[in-house]
């Protein structure tokens, strides 16, 4: 009967509408977290199957956040097994993390050649995961602070401080540290 | 990095990230125009963001999308009896268990983070965060209750009890006007073990209420009503550390009633 076959395909159509549009975002996040094409593949495939099984819990208006959260969780499981040290912020949430290796050879120009792109990606990949993910979610996915807070399960204030510290670490690693914004501190 | 430096840096970042309301953007533009150091930081941070956006965006390979669609199709269609499991049963069971845990955590997180369990609690947290972000913690800076209390005169239709409880661990930093639930309210700022506490005071709608603990977006709140005033204390400290505050505020309110 055509009615029953249509019903049987409904979950697939729902998956196609709700989840598949965000496959690139999920892959990009998984790729930056695992830093490996093959592992990002596995993580996203696993996350997609989970998403399909629990599709009725997905709200249409928050499908991207929901699928990204499942993907992030799958990536974290993978990281906990394979590279637990990357999940740790040395010095704790408030302390100063270890410096990334600075790269003095970075050219001044903003236009990046292949070599500079590679160095930029190494610098991002060198960030501890809690900083790396907020930088990627903000700079590449352009998620709001609130969306990032819900996705990563930390308060907005923590998102803001992680973002600031991630950016400062990257600026230093790229050989162009951000000057202090504080007026007159050094002049006083 | 000092506290104010971090506040300024995060305020600038919030503007670049499109997180500031328009009226604050104007404030920030004015600030940048007369603060070359902040302007230099902001320009460098903008350049960094432009560089970061050149990092490759990794799109999902077409083969992955195909594989996922195939898997989904297999799961959606009941398999013939001869080949009941397209994927090993053990793998499927552990994936199912993991997914169940994940969704449980997701739901719990949503419940915990969900605004609007008490809309006012969410607004209190927003005001608290904004007061720390925007370098606008206090309009009147003083640890002297006789300076802070009269400052509110004529600005509000209520007289908040003001006291410096430094000896009991809650040092008065100052006060400011804020806006809550559609009304101008008093915000008293205390420091407790290096953490800032905002104590909002507004007219109470009903009878006295005993202190109630709430959590919103990871912040601790304590709400109570006494003598026609509604109190909201908010901070990023352990919720239990707020417990001492109502009695202290009460002690500051008592002499004022006999005046």
Cα-to-Cα separation, first versus last residue of chain A: 83 Å
Q: What CATH first level of the largest domain in chain A would be assigned?
A: Mainly Alpha
**Radius of gyration over C-alpha positions of chain A, nearest whole angstrom:** 20 Å
Q: What average pLDDT do the residues of chain A reach?
A: 84
Key features?
heterodimer, A: 188 residues, mainly alpha, Rna Polymerase Sigma Factor, Chain: A, Arc Repressor Mutant, subunit A, 2 domains, 8 helices, disordered C terminus, B: 259 residues, alpha+beta, seven-stranded antiparallel β-sheet, 46% helix, extended
What's a concise summary of this model?
The complex is a heterodimer of chains A (about 190) and B (about 260). With about 190 residues, chain A is mainly α. In chain A, about 60% of the residues lie in helices and about 0% in strands.
Give a verbal description of the structure.
The complex is a heterodimer of chains A (188) and B (259). Chain A has 188 residues and is mainly alpha-helical. Chain A has two domains: 1-84, Orthogonal Bundle (Rna Polymerase Sigma Factor, Chain: A), CATH 1.10.1740.10; 103-179, Winged helix-like DNA-binding domain superfamily/Winged helix DNA-binding domain (Arc Repressor Mutant, subunit A), CATH 1.10.10. Chain A is built from eight helices and no strands. Chain A has helices spanning 2-18, 23-34, 37-53, 63-82, 114-125, 129-139, 145-152, 156-173. In chain A, α2 crosses α3 (37-53) and α6 crosses α8. Residues 79-85 and 110-117 of chain B have low confidence and may be disordered. The longest helix of chain B has 25 residues, at 89-113. Chain B is an alpha+beta fold and 259 residues long. Chains A and B meet through α1, α2, α3, α4 and α5 of A and α1, α3, α4, α5 and α6 of B.
